[in-house]
């Protein structure tokens, strides 16, 4: 679904759901000024078209024992499409890797990892990065303070 296919009602629905996905259909409909059946139909359409990928609960890493955040740059030795895809598949299977981006100009990948402590990071780094034959360079930055975290997409 392209940006032009979203009308103002869709944008209001998306803005509200990004703030609070627990809103009932009735409450959401009232806030966007449409009938509940219309609202439900629009939300379903946004899901079907992939505009809304999923609804989740955002958990505080510190409160569940995963308070160390690492931002990891990975450079591979071989950058062929099959090598890049293989690395992405491996990272998809790593629970501590919460985000994986293929990037241009610089490293091949930037990852965000959540681990309990440095010992857990070292185990992850060995298992997922240095033990892999195709990883040339790993550079990790550890967060000392998170001043902003938002999952909303500007509309």
TrEMBL record:
<dbReference type="Pfam" id="PF13404">
    <property type="entry name" value="HTH_AsnC-type"/>
</dbReference>
<dbReference type="Pfam" id="PF01037">
    <property type="entry name" value="AsnC_trans_reg"/>
</dbReference>
<keyword id="KW-0238">DNA-binding</keyword>
<feature type="domain" description="HTH asnC-type">
    <location>
        <begin position="6"/>
        <end position="69"/>
    </location>
</feature>
<dbReference type="InterPro" id="IPR036388">
    <property type="entry name" value="WH-like_DNA-bd_sf"/>
</dbReference>
<keyword id="KW-0804">Transcription</keyword>
<protein>
    <submittedName>
        <fullName>Lrp/AsnC family transcriptional regulator</fullName>
    </submittedName>
</protein>
<dbReference type="InterPro" id="IPR019887">
    <property type="entry name" value="Tscrpt_reg_AsnC/Lrp_C"/>
</dbReference>
<dbReference type="InterPro" id="IPR011008">
    <property type="entry name" value="Dimeric_a/b-barrel"/>
</dbReference>
<dbReference type="InterPro" id="IPR019888">
    <property type="entry name" value="Tscrpt_reg_AsnC-like"/>
</dbReference>
<dbReference type="InterPro" id="IPR011991">
    <property type="entry name" value="ArsR-like_HTH"/>
</dbReference>
<dbReference type="InterPro" id="IPR000485">
    <property type="entry name" value="AsnC-type_HTH_dom"/>
</dbReference>
<keyword id="KW-0805">Transcription regulation</keyword>
<dbReference type="InterPro" id="IPR036390">
    <property type="entry name" value="WH_DNA-bd_sf"/>
</dbReference>
